[in-house]
Structure to design on (105 residues):
């Protein structure tokens, strides 16, 4: 991984989101999620353009998947305050990981 200025776990989280999502559809939402983790837009764009599969986190079990979702989307305090594009990303990630949205409640 060549993202030296970021905490490795955060960079890996962004890479994993990119791997799970349709980048063409969800790029702006990934940028927004990353900004909520304290990552500037420019750094996120660099990660999205340079990451590879080896940079992603392996999510082997339900507990790891739920923790990953919670880390990424912890800023979701109320569905009414969530941008539709971010909600779409959230739903896509939970579906891809096979974790139901109701499991988070």
């Amino acid at each position: 991984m060549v993202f030296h200025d970021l905490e490795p776990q955060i960079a890996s989280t962004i890479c994993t989101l990119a791997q799970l999502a349709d980048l063409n559809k969800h790029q702006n939402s990934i940028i927004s999620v990353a900004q909520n983790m304290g990552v500037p837009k420019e750094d996120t764009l660099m990660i999205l353009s340079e990451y590879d599969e080896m940079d992603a986190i392996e999510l082997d079990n339900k507990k790891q998947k739920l923790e990953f979702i919670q880390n990424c989307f912890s800023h979701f305090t109320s569905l009414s305050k969530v941008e539709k594009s971010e909600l779409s990303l959230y739903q896509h990630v939970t579906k891809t990981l096979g974790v139901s949205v109701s499991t988070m409640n």
Observations:
- The helical segments are 8-20, 23-36, 41-50, 62-72, 84-97.
